[in-house]
């Protein structure tokens, strides 16, 4: 009788531990997806900034060439 109770307790602890591991993995997957979306947004912002930087550099070269002509 005591052995049955101890086996039940050990089994309950093992099942609870496995449930905690599965829950933790679920949270990790959700965080990975969120970080991936954040990374994609940052990449889009960087591309937009790069395009603007190229426009500014072209305008700067145009201004410098006009100044040199005068």
Total number of beta strands: 0
Cα Rg: 30 Å
Number of helices: 1
Instruction: Kindly state the percentage of residues in helix.
Output: over 70%
Low-confidence stretches: none
Q: Tell me the β content.
A: under 5%
Characterize the largest beta sheet: strand count, sense, and whether it forms a barrel: none
Distance between the termini: 103 Å
Question: What would you note in describing this structure?
Answer:
The protein has 70 residues and is an all-alpha fold. Helices cover 97% and strands 0% of the residues. The protein has one helix and no strands.
Keywords:
70 residues; mainly alpha; single chain; 1 helix
How would you summarize what this structure contains?
The chain has 70 residues and is an all-alpha fold. It has one helix and no strands.
Summarize the SSE layout with pairings.
Blueprint: H1 2-69
């Amino acid at each position: 009788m005591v052995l049955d109770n101890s086996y039940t307790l050990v089994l309950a602890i093992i099942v609870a531990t496995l449930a905690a591991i599965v829950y933790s993995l679920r949270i990790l997957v959700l965080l990975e997806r969120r970080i991936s979306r954040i990374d994609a947004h940052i990449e889009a912002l960087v591309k937009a900034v790069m395009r603007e930087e190229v426009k500014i550099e072209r305008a700067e070269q145009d201004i410098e060439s006009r100044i040199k002509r005068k």
